[in-house]
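RETRY 2/3 - previous attempt timed out on the joint model. Re-submitting the same 796-residue input unchanged.
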Amino acid sequence: MSMRTAGGNDDRSGWILLLKNPLVLRLACLGMILAFWEIAPRMGWVSPVMLAPLSATVISGVTDFGVFARNLGVTFGSLALALLIALGGGGAVGLLLGSVRPLRTTLLPIMSSIYAVPLVVVYPVFTAWAGIGVESKVLFGGLYGFFPMLLATAAGVRTVDGGYMVAARSMGATRFQMIRHIMLPAALPSIMSGVRIGSAMTAIGVVVAEMMAATAGIGFLITQNRTMFNTAEVYFGVFLVVVLAGTIDWAVSVIERRAGSSYPRKVRTL
Amino acid sequence: MSHGLASRAGRISAQIGIVVAIFLFWEVAVQTGMANARVLPPPSLVLPRAVAMLGDPVVLYNLWITSAQVLLAFVLVAPIGIAIGLLLGESDYFGRAFKPFFFFLASVPKSVFLPVFILAFGIGFTQKVAFGMFQAIFVLVISAIAAAESVSSDFLKTARAYGASRRQLYLDIYLPAMLPVIVEGLRLGMIFNITGVLFAEMYVSRAGLGHLVSTWGMSFQMVNLFAGILLAAALSIAVNEALRWYENKVGAWRG
Amino acid sequence: MAGLKMVRTDSVAASAGADLRAENITHMFDTDDGALLALKDVSFTVEAGTFVGLVGPSGCGKSSLLLMMAGLLLPTDGRIAVRGETVSGPLPEDIGVVFQESSLLPWKTARENVEFPLYLRGVDRQVREKAALKMLDLVGLGEFTERRPHELSGGMKQRVAIARGFCQDPEILLMDEPFAALDEQTRMTLGDELLHIWDQNKKTVVFVTHSLTEAVFLCDKVLVMSARPGQILKEIDITLPRPRTYEMMATETFGQLRAEIWELIRETQAK
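RETRY 2/3 succeeded.
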């Protein structure tokens, strides 16, 4: 790393030296994107309908804070219920499919094929059945997170080292004790990564449902503002969802670290 | 060997059995009145309708629109995503500068950006293609990074010790070593791409399979709705399994 | 490719091998904590047609030295010479290399792996296929030529790597802990087979290993290296007669040679 000497002028070689540090390049690009975001719409380079200046976006968020907070609250409520379905249901079915061999070999491949289906097309069924209120988006969000949770849990249970099971059995462990003391702890890292991906997918599902048909929630707010061409509000809403997803990811990874502190660190996989 | 094949055949027939059983249960549930046929039409109505749709010019036209959007997005995004990923994976400098950036973006929910694409590109063909590309690009970049990093230095050392030229290094070491991971990325990117295009069509559009499904849902045409969902699901599963087959073929050596 | 030598496919025919010298090799690595002296003034000669072992504590620079001989790493100072000529890059026609098992290309079959050096040089398909099959036969893998590495055991994989090293009939064979990943029994068997092949063509072999027993059993001469910075502590002539047999391991000479090497390494490890 090369530091510029104090008092140096902004001469060419100084900048080039500075750019040799990849971190500087990253920050420079980030700065340029933010600057473009602010300047481009103001200078008329892009239409203000397409992109609202950064400052306008922030200001819209501050002035309409009450509206954003109320709708975010609605989304949180639906999300909590949807997580119950996704993580609880997906986890339970995953445990069952992963630990019972005949179920595993026949049903798991079907489940991973279903995973490839764009579940978004099923959403009209939910609104047809349950209307456009809370029920349909809870069910849809739950469905979105159900399969990732199921697959990760099943994979975790499946990879439990047979040696542990043999050892536990030789010490006279009952079936329940084996699940409680061997299978669950050993599968925990994989289950937690299922919780992380499943939670993220559930949140996306809830917001997507709100965007397509709903009467409240952050997704609804984004769509409403889009139809009214309130570009700044759309951008701020999108920003809030990104923050929401980031917060969930962070919270799960904190739990993950606590719960998994006794395990050797594993490299995160996709 | 024959034992393995026999058990595999057994497994596949068990799977077919399960799928058939689900459809049978669905049919029986509706026929016995356990489920309301108005909200859950029986497969005896849905399946023939799905087949009939494949001969319906309106459905075929919309299916063609969707396929064209998906394919164009895929053809455009695949080289871009792979090139970015390989650059970040191979160059220490650019990797350190931008990898965290892409890892972060890959974890961001992308569906929520759809309204932004409408503001930018309107509600037509271009917007669907752009949004499909946006959905797919990050997983492509990340798997190309993983692919570049998965090339073992042992292989390169061996090839160089035996005098491999630069061209031979690329064609005989880098390419075969990276291909399975890249194809896996293409498969995941394709799933995200299809989901993105269908979602964009359901959200706001004038054509496409997603548009049809959404319209049928809003007008309570349940038989059409279920038939459309079956079509979308079957097509996606077919695309996914085809790419998975290729992925397993080029990655058979991974054991 | 200028100067492409005719490839001798009858690998088993006697070729005397070439001599190899290390002259005053000093090597520094750049690390985050500054330059690290890895090798210090290392000189030795490997006579043509001899089997020479390189042993020393972990991190003493044996593997770096081997990479230099293969032309994959240039020393900071000094030179490697083959037949008196400085090595400045890979010499695939003169030098074969056998790395640990992970160097087999997993997407190629055993035969394709063995052919690989010949393929890189653009040798005719039939010619290289014949050469590969012959070598695989020699290492006892005649029935497994179309298997991929993941379908082979550790010992079989290493046999493939050895066949690959010999297949192009190089003058010099460099082996970097080729048996390190194998269990004791497989190791012994493979060592014995390696000697059997070597007896037929008497290549010049440099063999890096951690196993002292292996070093004494296989080699004409063992170079013992010190802890970092690596230096040659002693060249020990292995006076056991050839062909070597397992019974020799129980002899007093064998034990004394092994003990002498161990004593040198123990002292240098203790500093």
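Residues 41-254 of chain B form a domain with the MetI-like fold fold (CATH 1.10.3720.10). Closing ticket.
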